[in-house]
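Session log. Operator J.P. requested a structure for one protein chain; no other inputs attached. Running the standard single-chain path with token output.
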Amino acid sequence: MSNIIRIGHSPDPDDAFMFYAMLNDKIDNQGLKIKECVEDIESLNNRALNGELEMTAISWHLLSKVYKSYAVLDPGASMGLGYGPVLIANKDSDISFPDLKGAKVALPGRHTTATLIMRIFASNFVEEFVPFDEIMAAVKNKDVDAGLLIHEGQITYEEEGFKKVVDYGELWHKESGGLPLPLGTNAISKDVDPETAKKMAKILLDSIVWGEKNRQETNDYARDFGRGLSEDKNDRFIKMYVNNKTISLGNEGVSAVNLLFKLAFEKGLIEEMPDWDLIKP
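Structure written below.
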């Protein structure tokens, strides 16, 4: 196996925060040469379907399709702790929830966990797949009736003039009995030998810990991925999705992932209950 590891991550502050140290010679990469591939999460999901990258960010939803070819690294998960994707509409909208009465909804990708959560909890809506950073514009221009926001849109939609229909993180917290909401994670190809996979888990952990100990420097780097976020909002967003469950899922995090798959399987939204693997440092 080559010592070159291609890593895919999305162009967002939380991912950039996690990977800064390993990509900028701040930690020991244990002889591995790491090459960065930055693409939106749905593009990375599609690349994972084709097994293109040794390591990549993926949606938990997609894991149900690639668990036989990719294992989950622990650390590296993005889990909402009472917050998550937000369904928004224009302030003059009379859209209802959970029955959306035929509304057209902009979704951020077929394989995203946000889309899966929408399908689990909402009904009677028309799906329109729109790049995540174009969803607000689609709602504002009334190309769609509502939009499901991921990434920093979750904390900026009010100042952009929209209203919240539902925060799926809040809903999940209530319906799951307080479990975190699984959204994304980092996965490594099972073609990578086990020793190297464990090395990458350790490198990722070291990179996150270094970032937390050197927050200002790492935040400044990550802010370039925030599409105009202020310094305060950038720090807030990073802390939302680089949290204690990122360091380790723990039993609670694993239970949350399995509950997500159970609900999706019972509704016929995934083909099988995945028997997924977890790799720790």
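Operator note: The chain has two domains: 4-79+180-279, 86-175.
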